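In response to a reviewer's request, we include the raw inputs and outputs for one of the modeled complexes. The two entities were modeled together in a single run.
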Amino acid sequence: MASENPHKSDYNSVPRIRVNKWVVYGAIAVVALIVSFVLRRVDLALLLDFPLDVEYPVKTSMNNGLDWLVINGAWFFDGISYQIKVWLGRLKDFLIWLPWPVFSAVIILLAWRIGGKKIVLLAAVALLYIGVMDLWESAMITVAIMIVSVSLSILFGIPIGILGSRSNRFDRILRPILDGMQTMPSFVYLVPGIMFFGLGNVSAVIATVLYSIPPCIRLTNLGIRQVDYQVIEAGTAFGSNRMQLLTKIQIPLAIPTIMAGVNQTVMMALAMSTIAAMVGAGGLGQDVLLSMGQLDQGGAFLAGMGIVLMAIVIDRITQGYIEASQSSSSTTNQE
Amino acid sequence: MQETLTNTTESPLDPIISVKSLWKIFGSNQEEIVNSDDGETDKTEVLQDYGDVVALNDVSFDVYPGETFVVMGLSGSGKSTLVRCLLRLIEPSSGEININDDDILLYDADRLREFRRNEMAMVFQHFGLLPHRNVIDNAAYGLEIKGVDKDERYEIAQEMLNKVGLEGWEEARTSELSGGMQQRVGLARALTVDPTILLMDEPFSGLDPLIRRQMREELADLQAELQKTIVFITHDLDEAVTIGDRIAIMRDGRITQLGTPEDIITNPIDDFVKEFTRDISQTRVLSVQSIASDLEQVFENNTGVSEIIQAMEDTGKEFAFIVDDDSKLLGFIDKEAIEGAADDVSLKDMDLSVIEPIHESTVIEDVVQLTLDNPYPIPIVDDENILTGLATHDAILQAFAENALQQQTN
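The model returned the following structure tokens for the whole complex.
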């Protein structure tokens, strides 16, 4: 056997008294209170106000920086703005052009294929409500904004998530950014939107994408990282290269988790497209906002209910899709 | 007995796998530990002194083409690490792994991938199947990533699925299958790429005992047909003895004993190995040659009939084995048959009863039924059909009795 650990005896020779850690924390709190009391009594300005205030220079330089970006990056932001405006406009016009029975039929068919009878009923109720409450056109605008924003979120979110899953370094950079994005109050996203893209639907789309992209990135990353190691090992043992592992094993097995991310993205996009009414986005959110402004509580409530029903239907349909994809690629190995 | 140790296993061929002084240490002091090795590096000491885990401790062995090489050990003995090192799923700390005289540890990523695609295939304890694919797409996976086109890979995969008894299940989801069937898919997937070497990491451990036995038998049949080189990992000595041509016993990252099943059962090198061998009956590994009794009642075919009858009456044994002048077994005759024959008939012209001889390398347990079905001793022959001994009822009973006694005293 090995010789005795040399550190062991030193460690034991120092007598140690075990103190409950809560006693220690309590003592620290008491001391802190006493010190505060004494300082307030002494009333020394240096100790009561922060000696340094850098708010102004930091704030100003940020504002200047943004101004510079707005002026010099105009070609870039205008380009994006134009593209989004065109596509969003076409989609919106198309959806409004679609006769309500056609649109309803498509949604109900979708609900029936993916969700079953219950969801069909729910979808029918929601469509009926939106129709009879004269919210159809607003709802179509909201749907158009949603489709464009969610498509953009997925288009960028899934590849970023995949990159995050492949490189731990990239993941470490990504994580605090996503944390920041998710803790930031939602209307903060509206401000840069207005500055770069002006008032209207484009700002709304950009703000919605920024707000709703984190869950898509996170869950794509998580889904790929969670794929059973034994399956990856088997894939490697048969000589798969990294791309083959990704496309033939990791992504297919991560689909349920990625879809859960997409579901969250959709729900967050719906929430944000409502708030985006504040920067001039049309749709149900605008109905709520305008009604509130006119002290028309009833109108605000009806439009609000429209949003709620839409949210429930979209959530149930996407959840149904996730369940379907889970059962088809379950990783459980039965004995 | 020494001779039987070398039959079939010690091939005169060059080894197909030759592992030389392989080390795997998990931790940050790999080089230091390997360099300071005095041949007595101890797993517990290293853990205490460096905080590193020695998974493979100076492991060397050869595997010959066509043999089933079993690595046996308990969990934590390093057997799973060893088999993963052979495919570089785990990167060894130092040493050599020569496959077909090529050190695979020197391969770059592309070469390694080619090697994995063509030379070796692995069957996993937990199957490692792709749950989002059906059975045939799982079986065809190895070919798919090699870029074999769809029709061809399905054809080959179908052939292998038929071989492992999964015909008709091609379209099933793997999660719908029982454990035994899932492992068949795993086996088919490995065979589809037609590897030179098959690695099997406790493939049957997750299955219940009945299925396990059945799978073992099927593997033996497949192996008889395909003649692959197999490296088989198990924690079960019983399994090791059944399927292994040679067995390496691992403990704490070292190979403590390497030999034929007979070697290991009859001469366990230390108490650790002995402990394992306790429950294994020697009759399962000892060949009939070791209990063969001397030749008696054996006559060349030019012997006179009356002489043979006389001998039967003298010994009271009413049978005779007839050989030619090279001692090759010709047949068998009992007293009734020989007495019925006319005196002037030569033995050469008589119809001898056929009695199925057993090969001298057959293990004792496999001849029990034959002995019970037969009132006379069973002739034992070598490769040339030369009669070398007889397996008598008494000798077989004796072998079992001795074994039972030994197990009691252990």
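As requested, we also summarize the result in words. The interface with chain B takes residues 1-2, 5, 230-231, 233-241, 244, 248-249, 252-253, 255, 328-335 of chain A (CB under 8 Å). Residues 73-328 of chain A form a domain with the MetI-like fold fold (CATH 1.10.3720.10).
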